[in-house]
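Changelog entry: the Class I SAM-dependent methyltransferase record was regenerated in this release. Current contents:
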Amino acid sequence: MPDDQRGSYFEQLYRQDADPWLVRQRWYEERKRALLLASLPQQRYRNAYEPGCGNGELTVELARRCERLMAADLSAEALRLARQRLQDAEQDAHVTLAQHRLPQDWPRIPPGAGKFDLIVFSEIAYYLSPEELARVVEHSIASLAPGGSIVACHWRAPFAQRIISTVRVHAVFQDAHGLHRVLRHEETDFLLEIWSNDARSVAQREGFA
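Regenerated structure tokens:
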């Protein structure tokens, strides 16, 4: 899907329905969020980035674990919905919302500023072309703080707007130099994986393994 069509598609989608994938109603979605959150290697994060935040349902939960969170989406309407969701949950004070196209709008980190210790790709990377995905992975690695984590969680079944298979998306992260997979959770419906530039397990990081 070309970039301009992609933007129009998501804008129209969220204008027609504030919850197009029923992420607030389906047990499948609630359970998937719970698994993702429980899988995070750290209890708290200083500075996180969530591109493709949609209407903000996962964003609210990430905000509760982060000192600072930048949440971004291609759709202005999705960001409006996310802002309202964060305000309703009283989690908006430390969250920055931004309209980003990937990879070109990837956040620039000024010299001396803190890198991201958590980057979350949830149901977004399969919309990217192989070239776009390669650049996103490069940006992710360059923006990752020491000991930070990159999360990818994606629906596995084919659908019309998909450009890359979930298996291929995750393989690009897995094959990237400098990343170590610290978690893989595979189900019929979705694949959840986490990589870090620190190969130690959670127990090893806490010094008892």
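The chain has a mean pLDDT of 95.
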